[in-house]
Specification:
The longest helix has about 30 residues. The protein is an all-alpha fold. It is globular, with a radius of gyration of 17 Å.
Length: about 180
């Protein structure tokens, strides 16, 4: 891929990530602080499985695009996040096929661990002090700014954090909305 194509891909994914962050935050705020009845939360609850499947699918596909097509070698923390994101495609895909909303029990533990790793990686990415510290034996550094869009806000670690945050928000809405 040429640099222009990569830049436009980064802009596209960055804009999508910001929109996804806003929607996930609005969903959580509506769930915990909003009225008992919400058209937005009704929509999420009704289409939870397809939305979660698509978010996990796109997170997995674009992770592979960055590593296998563009050639950005993932650091050790990225690999660990992949361990917890990649199965989500199959978990939500099978749940969507079977229309099984009980998938939450199986998905949340993986999402929580992936989310914690993503928070940690974002912390060292944005607030770390050393730019040449590698995360593991691969020699790839978590501090390497391979993607930096929207004033540096959007990065590969932020894209991963957004995916985990959005999936957690979706599962929380599906689990807690309209439950007495």
């Amino acid at each position: 891929m040429n640099l222009n194509t990569i830049h436009y891909l980064n802009i596209f994914l960055g804009a999508g990530a910001i929109i996804l962050q806003i929607l996930a935050l609005v969903a959580l705020l509506a769930l915990f602080f909003g009225p008992k009845k919400s058209a937005f939360l009704d929509f999420i609850e009704k289409h939870f499985l397809i939305i979660a499947f698509l978010v996990s699918l796109f997170a997995t596909l674009f992770s592979l695009v960055y590593s296998e097509i563009i050639g950005f070698t993932p650091c050790q923390l990225c690999w660990w996040q992949r361990v917890f994101m990649f199965p989500q495609v199959f978990i939500f895909g099978i749940a969507l096929w079977n229309k099984d909303k009980k998938v939450i029990k199986y998905s949340i533990p993986l999402l929580c661990v992936g989310f914690v790793i993503a928070v940690y990686q974002n912390f060292i990415y944005y607030f770390g002090t050393t730019s040449n510290v590698s995360c593991g034996s691969s020699g790839v550094s978590c501090f390497e700014h391979l993607v930096s869009e929207f004033g540096g806000y959007i990065s590969i670690p932020m894209l991963a954090l957004t995916s985990f945050f959005a999936l957690l928000a979706l599962t929380l809405v599906a689990h807690f909305y309209r439950k007495e």
